[in-house]
Amino acid sequence: MYRKQYRSPLGMITLNADGENLTAVCFEDGKDYGRYIQDGEERDLPIFDEAIQWLDQYFQGKDPGPIPRYKRNDMTPFRQEVIDELLKIPYGQTVTYRDLAKAICAKRGWKRMSAQAVGGAVGWNPICIMIPCHRVVGSNGSLIGYGGGIHNKLKLLALEGVDTSSYTIPKKGTAL
């Protein structure tokens, strides 16, 4: 396992890679940091160069396009399906957990699915920003569920030009 630090305008971000693929990208002050980031040798790698170039473009307020290669060994078919839907969310737009559930139901031919099940899979995402789970909001306009911290979710959406004035921040709960 290898690691690289990236200084973003929102704070330090740690990247992990297996040498060929990203395995985690997390804000150091986020709750997901201890969950996904592994100790590893600090090393310059082509995958880190790609990731840093992507992040530089992103933090300049530009859509950086396709994300660098990533790999997770604990990817279930359902998680992959949710990740595939997350990757379809356009830069500068948001969707709800309910929207994601409906999209998966349509693909599977189901009548309905729990938005909470989708939320659990979204919350599993170890590649923050690049796999844009920050673009998912509650159907009531609440900015819930971001492992990088609600403060960062709000800033990422604003960076993308999303009007965040109608969104609310929970006063308590696990989303904070």
Please tell me about this protein's structure.
The protein has helices spanning 33-36, 46-59, 77-86, 97-108, 115-122, 150-159; strands spanning 2-8, 11-17, 22-27, 41-42, 95-96, 136-137. The protein is globular and about 45 Å long. The mean pLDDT is 92. Helix 4 packs across helix 5. It is α/β, with parallel strands linked by helices. Strand 1 (2-8) and strand 2 (11-17) form a beta hairpin. The strands form 2 sheets. Strands 3-2-1-4 form a 4-stranded mixed sheet, covered by helices on one side. A two-stranded parallel sheet has the order 5-6. The protein has 2 domains: 2-59, Double Stranded RNA Binding Domain (2-Layer Sandwich); 77-159, Orthogonal Bundle (Arc Repressor Mutant, subunit A).
What's the short story on this structure?
The chain is of the alpha/beta class.
Going by CATH, the architecture of the largest domain would be Orthogonal Bundle
Q: In terms of per-residue confidence, which ranges show pLDDT below 50 for 5 or more consecutive residues?
A: none
The tally of structural domains comes to 2
Taking the sheet with the most strands, its summary is: 4 strands, mixed
**Cα distance spanning the termini:** 29 Å
Shape descriptor: globular
Q: Describe the strand arrangement of the main beta sheet, using strand numbers.
A: 3-2-1-4
Binned, the helix content reads 25-40%
Oligomer: single chain
Q: Can you identify the CATH superfamily of the largest domain?
A: Winged helix-like DNA-binding domain superfamily/Winged helix DNA-binding domain
CATH topology of the largest domain: Arc Repressor Mutant, subunit A
Radius of gyration: 16 Å
Domain Methylated-DNA-[protein]-cysteine S-methyltransferase DNA binding: 77-162
Protein name: Methylated-DNA--[protein]-cysteine S-methyltransferase
Organism: Massilicoli timonensis
Keywords: DNA damage, DNA repair, Methyltransferase, Transferase
